[in-house]
User: What shape does this take?
Amino acid sequence: MNTLEARDDGLLTVQEAAERLRVSPRTVRRMAANRELRHLRVGRLIRLYGSDMDGFIAKSIVDEG
Assistant: This one.
């Protein structure tokens, strides 16, 4: 999929992404600035795709053993 194509999973605000990850909005902004989270900017606003949050969570899981 081209990165400019619309996705149907919707955009999350920084606050919504923070709630999903259970971190502060400041942490989400820092992670976006450090390119740890894929995001897009609409003017000064940061938006994140829900599917990208799910992918970030999935790849961050640490298996014991």
